[in-house]
Amino acid sequence: MSSSIFTSNSALSKTAAKWFIRMQEAAPDSEERTQFEAWLMQSPQHQQEYASISEAWIGIDSVDQLKKLADAKQAKQENQRIHQSKRAKKIKNTLGAISACMVFAFAGLIGYQQYQQWQTAPTVQLASQSNTAQIVTQSLEDGSQITLNASSQIQVTYYRHQRHIDLLKGEAIFNVEKDANRPFVVETNTAKITVLGTRFAVNKLNQLVRVSVDHGKVQVESKADGSKILLQNGQVAEIPNGQAVQPKNAQAADYFKFATGTIVFNQAGMLEVAEVLSRYRQKNVIVHGKLQDNISAVFQVKDTETFINTLPKIANVAIKETTESTIIQSQK
Questions:
Q1: Taking every pair of C-alpha atoms in the chain, what is the biggest distance, in angstroms?
Q2: Sign of the C-alpha dihedral, residues 276, 279, 281, 282?
Q3: Fold adopted by 261-330
Q4: Which DSSP category does 177 fall into?
Q5: DSSP 114
Q6: CB-count exposure of residue 74 (10 Å: 0-12, 13-18, 19+)
Q7: What is the tens place of the pLDDT at every residue in 133-176?
Q8: I need a labelling partner for 318 at 20 to 30 A (CA). Which of 14, 104, 187, 205 fits?
Q9: CATH T-level fold of 124-254
Q10: How far apart are CA 196 and CA 183, in angstroms?
C-alpha cells in the first residue's frame, strides 16, 4: 500500500476518500459524478489526493477498509498535531522554567551583592593620633582599647564582619575584646595582624614592624611574601621590609612598658634607637652613616635627654646637635 495517502491534510484526504467511495457506486451519467468531476478540476491538490486514494485501493478489499484507511490517516494526522502541540507546550514550559531560574539567579545575585554591601558598610569610623611625648588611650565601641605611644597615628574602621585598624605611624597596644564573628585586624604597609581576642602590641618602624603578644593568639602575615606565623603568650616576631616574618628572641612584656613611661631597647640598631627617641622630642634624632652598633637599655621617658647624652659611653657613636636635629654619627 502506498504511503503517499498519509502526506496530505486531514480534511482534503477525507473528502477525496468520500468521493472515491461514492464513485464506486455512482452511475456513469449521474449528477453526482458531474459534481465529482467539478471538484476534481478545482485544484491539482484535489487530483493528487484522489490519485493517492486510488493507488491505495490496490491492496484494499472493501469500502469499509477504505473508510478505515481514511480514518487511520486522519487519526495519524491528529496524533501528529497533538504531538506537535505537546512538544510546543513542553518547549514553552522549559523556556519558562529557564527564565524563572534566570530571574531567581539574578535576584539571588542582587541579594548577595546587597548583602555584601551591607556587610562591608562601615559602622564605626574614627581617627586617633598622639603628639610628641604624648600617650593616648582610646576606647572603642566594642569595649576594646588602644593605647597609642607618642607620635603615633591610627585609622579605625568597624564593619559588621570585621574590626579593622590601620596603624599609619608609630606604636600601639591593643587590648581586644573577643568577638568570634568579627576578627580584629591591624594592618601596616608591610604587615597584617589578625586576632579574635587578646592583648598585643605593634610597633611600626621605618625598617620593620614588630608584633608582641602579652596573652592570646595572634596571626602575623608578611605582605611581601605571604609568610605567616602564629604568636602566643609572651612571643615576639618582626617583619623586616620586603622580607618574611621572623620570630624574635625577646620578652614580649618589654614592648608594653612604654604605656607606663618606660622605654626598652633590646639589641636595637641605631636607626631604631633614633626613631623611637624622636617620638619623645620636638627635635628629631637622625643617624648619619652606617652604624653597626646594637644596644640594650631601659630608661624612663623623662630621662630621654640624659640617655642621649650617655649614648657615646655605651656605643661607638658621637652626638652632634644642630638647630634642626640631633645627629648620631660614628666616633672618629
A1: 147
A2: positive
A3: Phage tail protein beta-alpha-beta fold (3.55.50)
A4: P
A5: H
A6: middle
A7: 999 999 998 999 999 999 999 999 999 889 999 999 999 999 99
A8: 205
A9: Jelly Rolls (2.60.120)
A10: 5
